[in-house]
Amino acid sequence: MGGDGLAITVTLVDDHPVALAGAEAWFAAASPPIDVVAAGACAQVAWTPPGDSATVVVLDLQLSGPQPAYADLRRLVDDGRQVIVYTMREDENTALTCLDIGAFTFLTKAEGKEHLVAATVAAAHGRPYTPPALAGAFGVNTRPDRPQLSQREQEVLIEWFQCESKELVAERLGITPRTVSSYLDRVRIKYASVGREARTKATLVARALQDGLIGIDDL
Q1: Which of 59, 93, 96, 118 shows a CA-CA span of 20 to 30 A to 70?
Q2: Residue 205 φ then ψ, to 5°
Q3: CB-based contacts of 39: which residues, under 8 Å, 6+ apart?
Q4: In angstroms, rounded to a whole number, what is the distance separating the alpha carbons of residues 154 and 73?
């Protein structure tokens, strides 16, 4: 079940038919089954009904063309989507870049069914999930106890510290309250992923101060 009590739904974005078929079979065999509502070779499927309504987007980072699909990932994140990057790439810099942009988590295709299904369930419930590839990336990070927040996540965080409501943050930044909540959820997930949970606003303020993301003057 999803975080809102509804069945978990997924949109798959991958330009390899075998990979799409395999992921669909894994989700169908999950208990309870996870419904793949749309699948395709380009990210546009995630904005085309019914793909635009999916709880989670599973995105292959290497679509058509030589460059990683960072732009597609950023657009999905900015739209407030929960995105699992699922890719053949295994280097730590790519993993950390995806996390910095705002991906929910980063999986290599070698990690297979167990981690893809578990990560999808975690994403639907808003629970942190750190598979081996991402744990390894954290391990080589020069600041392993400090989550890598994207610039937009930091902007939302600071505005939220300064505002009385998410609605006011949304008005200031020109986004929706739902998107504000999504950004804040991702920040909390990132802190939890490095063992520093921040369930309350007060704790999140303390974490941000500790990490130099904000100063007293920002408050």
Answers
A1: 118
A2: -60, -45
A3: 11, 12, 13, 14, 20, 24, 45
A4: 18
Mean pLDDT of 185-203: 83
What is the per-residue pLDDT for 137?
59
Q: Whose structure tokens read 């941000």?
A: 208
Taking all residues of the chain, what is their mean pLDDT, rounded to a whole number? 85
At residue 132, φ and ψ (nearest 5 deg) are: -55, -40
Confirm if 213 and 156 have CB atoms less than 8 A apart: no
47 burial (CB, 10 Å; 0-12 / 13-18 / 19+) is: middle
Is the pTM of the predicted complex or chain greater than 0.70? Answer: no
What is the mean predicted confidence (pLDDT) over 112-133? 85
Q: What contacts 194, CB < 8 A, 6 or more positions away?
A: 138, 144, 145, 146, 147
